[in-house]
Amino acid sequence: MRIANLSQRAVLITDSTTAVDIAEASAGRFGPSPRQVFEQWDAFTAWAETADLSGGKAFEPADLGAPVPDPQQVFAIGLNYRDHADEAQLAHPEHLVVFTKFASSLAGPNVTVELPSESVDYETELVVVIGRETHQADLETAAAAIAGYSVGQDYSDRGVQLRGPAPQFSLGKSFPHFGPFGPAVVTGDELDDPGKLRITAVLAGPSAGEAGTRTVQDGTTADLIFPVDRIISDLSQVVTLHPGDVIFTGTPAGVGQPRGLFLEPGDTLTSTIDGIGTMTNRFTSR
What we know:
Strand 1 and strand 2 (9-15) form a beta hairpin. By secondary structure, the protein is an alpha+beta fold. It has helices spanning 22-25, 34-39, 41-50, 82-87, 139-144, 158-162, 169-172, 228-236, and strands at residues 2-6, 9-15, 18-21, 57-58, 64-65, 74-78, 97-99, 106-107, 112-115, 120-121, 124-130, 146-153, 156-157, 179-186, 198-204, 213-220, 246-248, 268-273, 277-285. The protein starts with a strand and ends with a strand. It is built from 8 helices and 19 strands. It folds into 2 domains: 2-59, no CATH class; 68-285, Fumarylacetoacetate hydrolase, domain 2.
């Protein structure tokens, strides 16, 4: 299944341009709030297996919002790819490096982002949405708590993030539209292997240089230091995860800061995870 947020209503995307309104198809049993679908995850997935999903309506990708616009919690994991830790010249962590992106930073997949400074960086990420309340979970229970996967960007104002006297990770990563994700939450049965997904980001515009287009990230989830089930299990030893919670799982190598590359007005960044989808963000001055 591919669950999305179309004009603040939960929908199932049945092909690239057609979606079925979940509340209408279920006669009001599920939705219309996107988060309510995840709060009733087991009942919803059982219904969806036999539901009549004909009669979908055409939609525009620009109308898609964040698949979960109002999660109770948003987690983000730092230094979680071997090649990214290497490019940052930092040791591979022995424990999760955790911060949050405040919920007001979440946005749909194809938003325009206003740049608050000249030091905004990109990080393409696999995003996970939780489907069951989870606390002190082992790896098997943690894996069963996954509702699905999405494409996300963890934009960061590095100036704010790294200013003293102590780093401000969450604040520097939470400007408006700094947490776009989508286009949908894709269930695991739609993917060959969530642990081996290719992740790419293609930059076009002034900061891409004379060529005009530049592939800035090209990695794979096989390079994760902490796989998704381990992330969920480790987080759950401390916190209780709730249905609809969102986890940004980290980024592969190729972020801008190590190479002195930052986003500029007029740039466009296209982020893709194979099997899940693509999102495109454009950047303007504030």
